[in-house]
Amino acid sequence: MKVVRSPKQIQEIVRKIKKQGRSIGFVPTMGALHPGHLSLIRGARKDNQAVFVSIFVNPIQFGPREDLSKYPRPIKKDIALCNKEGVDFIFYPSFKSMYPDGFDTYVNVPGLTEGLCGKFRPGHFKGVTTVVNKLFNLIQPDIAYFGQKDYQQALAVKKMAEDLSMPLAVKVAPTIREKDGLAMSSRNKYLNPSERKDAVLLYRGLKLARNLINKGNHNCVSVINSVRKFLKQGRTISVQYISIVDLKNIEPALILKGKVLIALAVYAGKTRLIDNIIVKI
Amino acid sequence: MKVVRSPKQIQEIVRKIKKQGRSIGFVPTMGALHPGHLSLIRGARKDNQAVFVSIFVNPIQFGPREDLSKYPRPIKKDIALCNKEGVDFIFYPSFKSMYPDGFDTYVNVPGLTEGLCGKFRPGHFKGVTTVVNKLFNLIQPDIAYFGQKDYQQALAVKKMAEDLSMPLAVKVAPTIREKDGLAMSSRNKYLNPSERKDAVLLYRGLKLARNLINKGNHNCVSVINSVRKFLKQGRTISVQYISIVDLKNIEPALILKGKVLIALAVYAGKTRLIDNIIVKI
User: Fold this and answer.
1) What integer is the mean pLDDT of A192-210?
2) Does A186-275 carry CATH code 3.30.1300.10?
3) Segments making up each domain of chain B, as ranges
4) Residue A163 and residue B134: Cβ atoms within 8 Å?
5) ipTM of the predicted structure?
6) Was domain B2-173 assigned CATH 3.40.50.1370?
7) Mean pLDDT score across all residues of chain A
8) Nearest 5°: phi and psi at B226?
């Protein structure tokens, strides 16, 4: 396994691999790898002849009052984990090499990024689609892997790749969870014991919604209110949103039919957590 | 030579050519080919093993009151010209195949596209960088060719490709002119005889500016005013802008030093014409 810091060098490596006709699987990450990332890497390893992982805490997807500076960066541990998983190349660029002075090009998918998290994190998804577009151009993957936990991100990236005819496929893999159901996230490290305890309510709340719907409650407002009430037992929890939306355009589902996404974002103390499930009606 | 209409088919062709290790030169056009385009195609022919020309009148780069519907579309003549120039593939997609229902991804280079023409054509350059990004992803050229007449467009495309690490080079070729100096443009066809006569003043005005600067007049305002006065002799001409700007960031040149771009846009009757020259001080 090789750790590459320079964009030029990664381009040379990619060129060679392409010439050899080897397929490239790519897992873009911000590091602080957890079993969710590792499951993506295993998927990439299974499908492809070469596996690239990028580790880059992308400043332009963080808002001014968000956690950019304290975001965990355990690079040595991450490298060891990638090595163990049979990754071929880690791309670990510096900020300056990704965004040289005067950088000023942005890729935006407005329709899919205004709702859900986009409403509360203005500019976030523009930062995501821009950096992922650039990473796709550098790594030129055949398949790129994203986790369902960040459903809106995966959807926006997929839409970007399709709309711009990028020659690659985007695969979305299931959310990996702790034993108690908490979705794996690098941000779980921020939680103190009582927040960590309350954090289990997110997935339980989503399952509650699924149960209500399965039992025949097809009234979105009522289902959402039940989840909101349920989450109130977590003293450290404050809800940002709970939404039931169309799977494809993430617009609020007016009629519960077919498949819908139930998504929520809460603060546990000062830590923002998100989770979602897909429910078939 | 092959004319290809489907994006999927062009991707397959590109894949084959890449596999053969042949280099791809690409000239994106809106058709109505003139000697300016042909000079770009010759450049592409000289530098590369396969030459692709796209012909696509891109609706999203036209404003609501612009000339989208009357833009010339002499496709048979264009095909014959490409054939004569040894083009290998013409990509001639439909609107629907480039922008399927729900298309909603945009590439923007804000800093370079707010001044000059961008001020008078809001949304224009966003339409250009978006379609060119998509065309680059479809054709995957080694080198793409643009004309200096559309200097701001070429600069924005070059910046986009660099910022997003697209694996290609952008070459900008000199403006090709009629015998009397008028810059070749598909829009010249719109001109009636008196407008056509007045249109020669654009290049003469630019040369006047160069002469004034070369003779030691380094006062931008004074040089611009002289050009404005000079253009007044064209009864069908109304000036949109005359600017002297930095070559790299196209911001107004405060001090005339090094190389500058003198650029102008005028209406000759109802036809918008642009031209520019680079002057070394």
Assistant:
1) 98
2) yes
3) 2-173, 186-275
4) yes
5) 0.96
6) no
7) 97
8) -65, -40
